[in-house]
């Protein structure tokens, strides 16, 4: 969390998506007092801000304060200036709608498609991305009604920021606190990075570093992140994959004109928010979820690139309740009791795509992080894996060993299904991604 927070603060300070127009919605929560800080940070980053507040928000914070800090009058009711049809004008003006704080009531109204005040009417009308930063008491946030509202809103593509845990109004503390303004603004700036400004303002939809058309009109599926296999309701078997290599592949495929479906497991939402709009994100938590999501997306795909770290094993039994810690007896005071979890093998998604392709003539690409041992070096094991899995391309990445490049963290040797070397690449994740995408495109285009 700390790491995430630091990265977020750094981006808040450095991101420059160019001037954009942000509607800041303020709903009725005590956290409304933080809205001026959010507005100020957005304006400091060079953006124009228009505040739309609900009636109850104005019981917590005065319209003059919001107007002064945003530099524009505050809109509240749809009947304030009927002739101007203000909700339509404001909705069309916005490059982004950021509601902070979003109360439980506001979430419910947006979910229901209500348009009973200026803020809900603006959200319903706007075509711009919407970020909701909820703030409420823990019980309200955890109530099944709110959980359901949040999940429906997320399914519809609205971004709902997770609230923080900490001091709430009064003496209590818990989950439901509005995240710090820097965190919220950092999230907003990440979304603005991919929004093209209105009226021909310079946009940054994709950093078109190596733009081309090698995959124009093609559909590419990329998996990213690391699956988590549940042990009980609170524990899981997981891995350290950040998903960055998969995201770099998705962006590199878009640079070449592809439509991309990214099947992601536990990739930080801040990284996902920075993806270009050509990437459709599908979420899969476990290896089984990923198997189904990848095969479904792959039905009309020209290429599938498996960059996710998929758990090889999962617990045979998932406990319905939290497994209790065993209390040490007098005899095992020194080392304590041991416990074991029985594991079973997960399906190999990559191998399955080769042996039972969802679509004919589909190009399948995999990754293999290898280490050398007494039997052979990383490349030796990579060649054996390439032959075993049968993918058209396998990018072998030697972990803790160089492959003749020196100490380069992202060095890959790309092998074909026979284990023969096709190419070598090194550099940033973006550079490795561009190499793999150009090799994939060659196979897709049959050259
Ligand atoms: O066997 P290993 O895990 O090293 O293989 C890595 C490659 O296989 C990656 O492309 C990974 O996404 C894929 N994989 C898979 N299903 C698994 C395990 C790995 O698709 N169960």
How would you describe this structure to a colleague?
Helix content is 34%, strand content 21%. The longest helix has 16 residues, at 429-444. β18 and β19 (421-426) form a beta hairpin. The chain has two domains: 21-197, Flavin prenyltransferase-like (Rossmann fold); 219-313 and 343-446, Rossmann fold (3-Layer(aba) Sandwich), CATH 3.40.50. It has helices at 2-14, 35-44, 57-60, 63-70, 86-93, 104-111, 118-125, 138-142, 144-155, 181-193, 244-255, 269-273, 287-297, 349-355, 378-389, 429-444; strands at 21-26, 48-53, 96-102, 130-134, 159-160, 164-167, 173-177, 219-225, 229-230, 236-237, 259-265, 279-283, 303-306, 313-315, 343-345, 363-370, 393-398, 411-415, 421-426. By secondary structure, the chain is of the alpha/beta class. It contains 16 helices and 19 strands. The strands form five sheets. It has an eight-stranded mixed β-sheet with strand order 12-11-8-13-16-17-18-19, sandwiched between helices. Strands 2-1-3-4-5 form a five-stranded parallel β-sheet, sandwiched between helices. The structure holds cytidine-5'-monophosphate (C5P). One of its GO terms (biological process) is pantothenate catabolic process. It holds the Pfam family DFP.
């Amino acid at each position: 969390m700390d790491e995430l927070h630091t990265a977020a603060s750094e981006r808040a300070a450095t991101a420059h998506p160019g001037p954009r127009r942000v509607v800041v919605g303020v709903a009725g929560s005590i956290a409304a007092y933080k809205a001026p800080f959010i507005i100020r940070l957005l304006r400091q980053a060079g953006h124009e801000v228009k505040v739309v507040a609900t009636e109850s928000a104005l019981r917590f914070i005065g319209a003059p304060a919001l107007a002064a800090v945003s530099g524009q009058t505050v809109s509240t009711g749809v009947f304030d200036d009927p002739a101007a049809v203000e909700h339509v004008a404001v909705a069309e003006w916005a490059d982004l709608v950021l509601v902070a704080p979003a109360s439980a009531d506001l979430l419910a109204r947006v979910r229901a498609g209500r348009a009973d005040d200026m803020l809900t009417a603006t959200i319903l009308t706007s075509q711009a991305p919407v970020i909701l930063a909820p703030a409420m008491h823990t019980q309200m946030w955890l109530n099944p009604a709110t959980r359901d509202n949040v999940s429906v809103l997320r399914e519809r593509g609205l971004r709902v920021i997770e609230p923080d845990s900490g001091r709430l109004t009064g003496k209590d503390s818990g989950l439901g606190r509005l995240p710090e303004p820097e965190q919220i603004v950092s999230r907003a700036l990440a979304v603005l990075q991919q929004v093209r400004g209105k009226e021909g303002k310079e946009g940054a939809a994709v950093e078109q570093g190596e733009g081309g058309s090698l995959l124009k009109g093609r559909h590419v599926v990329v998996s990213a992140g690391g699956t988590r296999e549940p042990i009980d309701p609170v524990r899981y078997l997981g891995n350290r994959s950040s998903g960055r290599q998969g995201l770099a592949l998705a962006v590199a495929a878009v640079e070449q004109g592809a439509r991309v479906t990214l099947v992601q497991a536990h990739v930080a939402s801040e990284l996902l928010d920075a993806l270009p709009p050509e990437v459709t994100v599908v979420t899969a938590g476990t290896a089984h979820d990923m198997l189904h999501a990848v095969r479904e997306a792959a039905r009309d795909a020209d290429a599938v690139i498996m960059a996710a770290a998929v758990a090889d094993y999962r617990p045979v039994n998932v406990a319905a309740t939290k497994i209790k810690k065993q209390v040490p007896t007098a005899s095992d005071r020194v080392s304590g009791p041991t416990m074991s979890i029985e594991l079973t093998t997960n399906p190999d998604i990559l191998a399955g795509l080769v042996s039972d392709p969802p679509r004919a003539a589909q190009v399948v690409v995999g990754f293999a992080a290898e280490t050398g041992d007494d039997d052979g070096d990383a490349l030796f094991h990579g060649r054996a894996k390439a032959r075993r899995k049968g993918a058209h391309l396998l990018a072998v990445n030697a972990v803790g060993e160089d492959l003749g490049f020196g100490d380069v963290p992202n060095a890959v040797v790309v092998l074909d299904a026979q284990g023969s070397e096709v190419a070598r690449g090194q550099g940033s994740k973006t550079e490795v991604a561009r190499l793999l995408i150009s090799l994939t495109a060659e196979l897709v285009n049959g050259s």
